[in-house]
């Protein structure tokens, strides 16, 4: 089986490529600029026919955060009807009305309509780490007043690589091992980085924050990831 991975140079894609190769699968990446991958641009369509040539499955993990529906439409137009599709989405895109999530939900509809599979994941540790670092940079730290279920990107990559062998369609949610308050996660981040800060909750009005507050982005019933936040912090900060 030959696989094309869009977003192969991204956080998830960098873990996914070796996971596919470790299973003996013939996987190539797509990138606008990075050497060692098939050259292509999902927005312009440039390079897609050559990148898709001989491909049985596309794992679509590319995102630019803003024009993802147009990119997905371009990809789907370029794919042959018998080429399978596995899309990486986010838990709760149908429950939290964040503009980025709305894009992903629209793409999910396109993927389902053509018989493709979808793996939704919760927030990657790297994303939570970046938010924690930004919101605790000042002498008084902030935290969003909601829960989070961070998951290891490597474990999401392994699950995608498993699903590559499934004829589908499969719709699956995957979350990290623990649902924790953001305050708890940020306090652990401060401890691990050896800093002290008072932490002040931020609670915003509106439906988007309300969606996060009510846990729309969580999937405690699919807590199949195993790497905890503390283990992630230890590995990341000791490197
Ligand atoms: N971050 C999270 O917490 C999280 C959680 C759950 C699900 N997800 C989903 O997981 C997927 C991967 O996320 P990520 O964090 O790994 O993303 P990322 O690190 O931002 O990487 C995105 C990749 O998309 C590629 N890309 C962007 N625009 C492109 C275009 N026009 N044509 C071709 N390639 C393009 C880029 O490759 P080049 O620059 O090399 O072209 C880049 O490597 C996304 O669908 C995201 O929504 C993320």
TrEMBL record:
Protein name (record): NAD(P)H-binding protein
InterPro entries: NAD(P)-bd_dom, NAD(P)-bd_dom_sf
Pfam family, one: NAD_binding_10
Membrane-spanning segments: none
Domain NAD(P)-binding, residue spans: 7-114
């Amino acid at each position: 089986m030959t696989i094309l991975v869009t977003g192969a140079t991204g956080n998830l894609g960098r873990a996914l490529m070796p996971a596919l190769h470790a299973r003996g699968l013939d996987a190539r990446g797509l990138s606008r600029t990075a050497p060692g991958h098939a050259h292509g641009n999902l927005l312009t369509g440039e390079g897609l026919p050559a990148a898709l040539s001989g491909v049985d499955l596309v794992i679509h993990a590319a995102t630019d955060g803003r024009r993802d529906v147009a990119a997905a439409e371009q990809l789907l137009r370029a794919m042959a009807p018998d080429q399978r599709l596995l899309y990486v989405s986010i838990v709760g895109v149908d429950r939290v009305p964040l503009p980025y999530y709305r894009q992903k939900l629209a793409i999910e509809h396109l993927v389902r309509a053509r018989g493709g599979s979808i793996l939704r994941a919760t927030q990657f540790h790297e994303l939570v780490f970046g938010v924690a670092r930004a919101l605790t940079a000042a002498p008084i730290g902030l935290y969003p007043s909601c829960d989070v279920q961070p998951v290891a990107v490597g474990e999401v990559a392994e699950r995608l690589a498993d699903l590559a062998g499934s004829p589908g369609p499969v719709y699956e949610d995957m979350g990290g091992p623990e649902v924790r308050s953001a305050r708890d996660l940020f306090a652990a981040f401060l401890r691990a980085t050896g800093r002290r800060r008072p932490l002040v909750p931020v609670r915003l009005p509106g439906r988007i924050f309300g969606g996060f507050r009510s846990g729309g982005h969580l999937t405690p019933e699919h807590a199949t990831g195993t790497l905890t936040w503390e283990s992630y912090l230890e590995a990341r900060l000791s490197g």
